[in-house]
Amino acid sequence: MTNVIRSAPPAARRSPRQRLLARLWRHRGLYLMLLPGLLWFALFRYWPLWNAQIAFKDFQPVQGVLHSPWVGLEHFRAFFSSFYFSQLMTNTLVISFAKLLIGLPPAIILAIAIHESTRKGLARVTQTVTYLPHFLSWVIVFGILLAMLSPGSGLLNKGLVAAGGDPVSFLTDPGAFRAVVIFSDIWKETGWSAILFLAALIGISPSLYEAAEVDGATRWQRIRHISLPGMLDVIVLVTLLRLGHILDAGFYQIYVLYSLPVYSVADVIDTWVYRQGIQNFQFSLATAVGLFKGLIGLLMIVIANRVARRFAGQGLY
User: Fold this and answer.
1) How many CB atoms lie within 10 A of CB 128?
2) Which pairs from 14-20 meet CB under 8 Å and 24+ separation?
3) 291 falls within a domain
């Protein structure tokens, strides 16, 4: 037995700490590439959590985070009991769910159309043209919308007037503003979202399509029984991630597009927090609402993941 122990490899006699260090050194190149991302998350995601305690304090910049007096849940109660709470929640949820439910199918359809196209040149041009709007800032998009929807000189309103109708002020009309927000977001982001679904389609084995074609399956049947099931993992993942940000209705978009006449249908949590926290210097109240958003997002991910695992057989974790 002494000979057996002496002949054991050196790695087997290492402590867990030594084995861990050996693995880290062996894959040091990968960890070095991972380091910038970890530092970014540590500095901009985890370190700010220390300052999130001002949500429970009457924060005074002169006194600092540590010496500001505690007020407990006072800021949360103030937000929940305010006149704006129901209006902000309604606007945020309506816009967010509309973007999710109306915006997801066009991205899936576009990905399938590009994948099924027999003209690869046309497919590449279509993909490029559709995802280019993603790189435009909302300020530029606002200029485009103004040229299209302006009541005086907008192209769409000129068409309405030529047809005998009255011009519509889409950007200041409460009845039309939400539609502008939702469909401008779909126009801007559909091509970019389709890239994820297109990657899932490319990962499906071509032999499945060949076998289905030999068996006489039509193109619609191949899409229904091969393409859509092959995309299911990505569809579930994208849906869960978006549900986690369901209270992020799109701050930059709405802040650029909205104005005082449409506050009642366009003011969302993020824009209200910006006005209260930055413009009115109510930092503690803004932080409390931010924590509330984070808890709701976490709860939505957990619930949606359980529902997805139960009915779709898979989830985010």
Assistant:
1) 10
2) none
3) yes
Q: What's the structural domain count of the chain?
A: 1
Tens place of pLDDT per residue across the chain (317 aa) = 445 445 445 555 678 888 888 888 888 888 899 899 899 988 888 888 888 888 898 888 888 888 888 988 898 998 888 888 889 999 999 999 999 999 999 999 999 999 888 888 888 898 889 989 999 999 999 999 988 888 877 888 888 888 888 888 888 888 889 999 999 999 999 999 899 899 889 888 888 888 988 888 888 888 888 989 888 888 888 888 788 788 888 889 999 998 888 988 998 988 988 888 878 888 888 889 888 888 888 888 888 778 777 766 666 66
CB atoms within 10 A of CB 264: 12
The helix/strand/coil state of 65 is: helix
Residue-range definition of the domain harbouring residue 272: 82-311
Domain assignment present for residue 44? The answer is no
Instruction: Identify the burial level of 172 via C-beta atoms within 10 angstroms of its C-beta, where 0-12 means exposed, 13-18 middle and 19 or more buried.
Output: middle
Q: What's the whole-model pTM score? A: 0.80
Helix (H) or strand (E) run with residue 254 in it: helix 251-257
User: Would you say residue 157 lies in a domain?
Assistant: yes
For 13-40, letters b (16+ CB in 10 Å) and e give: eeeeeeeeeeeeeeeeeeeeeeeeeeee
Spatial separation of the C-alpha atoms in residues 177 and 180, rounded to whole Å:
5
